[in-house]
Amino acid sequence: MTAREGDGGVRLAPVTYLPGATPVDQEPVRWAIPLESAGGDEGTSAPLDGADAEDGASSADDAEEALTRRLRRSALSEREARSFLTQRGIDSTVADATVELLTRRGWIDDAVLAEQLLYAGTSRKGQGRRAIAQTLSARGIARDVADAALASLPDDDDDRALEYARSKAHGLRSYDLDTAMRRLIGQLSRRGYSGSVASNAARTALAEQRSSGGVQFR
Prior knowledge:
Elements: E1 3-6, E2 9-12, H1 50-71, H2 78-86, H3 92-104, H4 110-124, H5 129-138, H6 143-151, H7 157-169, H8 177-190, H9 195-212
Antiparallel strand pairs: 1-2
């Protein structure tokens, strides 16, 4: 599935989920993890001798199994995947090799994860560009990958802020206008909209409510 531009924004192609790769929060997923680990992957480490070979294989297999099981629940960035393994006592060298292996398989892909987070931020959470950028950084997405994802985002913070403000204005009908403005601006600011964008969106949404006769603020 690839991102497609149209209708003034970013649209995502239909998604098909395979068994064992259940999506979380209905975010788009562009890779599928099979129920059983695939064998014979290129680039696996060279065999060792004797007990070292047995111990090394066991450790690598355990790391791969644990990380694959974790990825079936939700996507991880490369940084998150490494942290997941090292927190479980996996040697850093084995952790790096395991993350590299699953990245080659396409099961870990920071660019795809960035696209997921972009979709969730704009389509489900009503977030502004700043909040989405903070989310990408917090998830360990590399700066260049994050910048590329954000570059695909239309410059429509004003429109998205107003859409969000309209969705919340009705719930503020029990407050006087000044209080409703403060609360709505606060909600918009927490979603990453700048002060001017939040203020304009809140003012417009509340004015629309008053002029429609649907809500009269005290």
